[in-house]
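Practice problem: Dipeptidyl-peptidase
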Amino acid sequence: MKLFKILLLFLTLQVSAQQGGMWIPSLLQGMNEADMQSLGSKLSAKDIYDVNHSSLKDAIGHFNGGCTSEVISKQGLLLTNHHCGYSQIQSHSSLENDYLKDGFWAKSFDEELPNNGLYVEFIVRIEDVTAQVLEGVTKDMTPREKQAKTDGNSNRIQAATKKEEWQNTKIKSFFKGNQYFLFVTERFNDIRLVGAPPTSIGKFGSDTDNWVWPRHTGDFSIFRIYADKNNRPAAYSKDNKPYKPKHFLPVSLDGISEGDFTLVFGFPGTTEEYLPAVAIQEITEQLNPSNIAIREAALKVIDAKMKTSDEIRIQYASKQARIANYWKKWIGENTGIKKSNAIAKKKAEEVTFTEALKAKNLEAEYGHILPELETQYAAFAPVDIKRNNFVEIFVRTNELMSMMFRLTQLEAAATKDEATFNKAKEAMQGRIKSTLKNFNTEVDQGVFEAIMPFYTKNVDTSIYNSTAFTNLDSALAVLEGTPTEVIEKLNTDAAYVYAKPFIEDFYTNIEPDFQDKNSAINALETEYMKALMEVVPNERYYPDANSTLRVTYGQVRGYEPRDAVYYNPVSYLDGVMEKYVPDDYEFDVPQKLQDLYTTKDYGRYADKNGKLPVCFLGTNHTTGGNSGSPAIDAEGNLVGLNFDRVWEGTMSDMNYDPEICRNIMVDVRYVLFIIDKYAGAERLIKEMKLVHPKK
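Answer key — structure tokens:
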């Protein structure tokens, strides 16, 4: 037992010493490459990112700007999460063809379904352009002057960048404006739905299991990229052909074991790892509780209504998932921050920083930063909370108020020329059609009544009885006519008359106050980041996530969420059946999956003990945007699909702790099992390159 404890301590120290971080793939040579190899990787930095030859990066696509996807065949077959493709699956669903409930599997290329507006973007190359972007920027510039200068420099750099005519460029800021990288990209716009399991598999556990381990969710969906005859990006056309990728990921049949190396490659959205303690305190003690309360009130209404009707269930499936996702994430984030004692640790780091300033005689240059941040966050918190409450209520959770918010922008466009107004009106008509396609007045009114008291005492539900904007025909009728006529009709609509004063106050008072205070804080935090890297140079700094391509490496590991509890790193189909509740929208199990379990008909996808793995844990540092990211083994093969984090570890956006932060991945063997044994989509299995790296 003593030997076991020593080994466990060694493993824990190894995890703590070498993991965490979202690294830029073009800069892996050196210490990152050595770290990966010490964790078991057999990949070189060039295997992962290479401009001149195909590499892993060429198989990793940004899925519709919010998730990650990976190419898994030489015919452009694309794998991502079920929840990433959820809105596309929903858009093709109806009461007659309920692909959410029953799943969808195209039996041929001709049956693959196009998706208007869906795109996948690949990175061609990454270049450090810091010196060029910051040329002419001086210390005495205001934040606005600095932004104008860097924007101008960035525009010139992009205009001068050598690229193919179908490629695009963008420049992104790193380390809070202290470093800049140019990305050359290729965007494919003909992306077709190929396959998706039923929600009872793809979303098994739903809200109850979201952000929680153990998970038993087959969170995957399959698309295909199509290109023109030259294999280049093109708008949808029946003449387009399956894309021939520069690289695709072979799929491992050998699975994972605890301690195996894992590399997660993708487009993480946003992290804030270098916030001062006062900022984390404001977020977890004031901002998160406020947002949690609003979303919880909305979800109670939506959840209850979804259980009463299949039509409402389909209409609100995607919206409910979107609202619930971060509601639960914020709760876990607060729990993790408290459990890891993150605020106290940040304060201790700030003491070390302050002592280092004294030791290096840099107090005059940087000593003002932390005291000023304390003062500014105290003034910032009230307006930050008020602004977030507005956004939650008028933009994110109530659809009638969201339409009113957009309609005020249409009224503003009417003060300009007619062409500007007509363009804005056309966009608004499209938005209204999209909103009212999946809209239920009773549900939305219930949400309105539940959440509006968080913002005002003036809660008038009677507006739902007299507004034109709960019906598509009457809503579009308001937008017919000249700009003057449209605005006159708009300003007699009950919902618009109710919402407009709140929205005007937001634009006139709340938003300007927020932007002024936030701009000053951002400038200080940029200076703080620069000071940290200068004053404490021996730390290893990785840039915050900003939806750019990143690598995070780790190992398959369980963890201890609390005293006397240890979570094993792999879940199995047995656990699905243990959770099974007949006819429950979260825990129902399709009859065919039950039959396959009963007969243990797992084919070649079971592990060596004859059990079917479903999900597994890793120490990879992930966040939103990593949904759909491939989990890649030591030799570059696909072993899993990232889709979540453990609840206690969601605080990794501000404080990565290797003791409790774990990402959750669906085992690719479960994906293959569902495609093959459950769906009978053997044509997709044949299309992949299945390998046995451990044999």
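Discussion: The chain has 25 helices and 22 strands. Students who identified this feature from the tokens alone can consider the problem solved.
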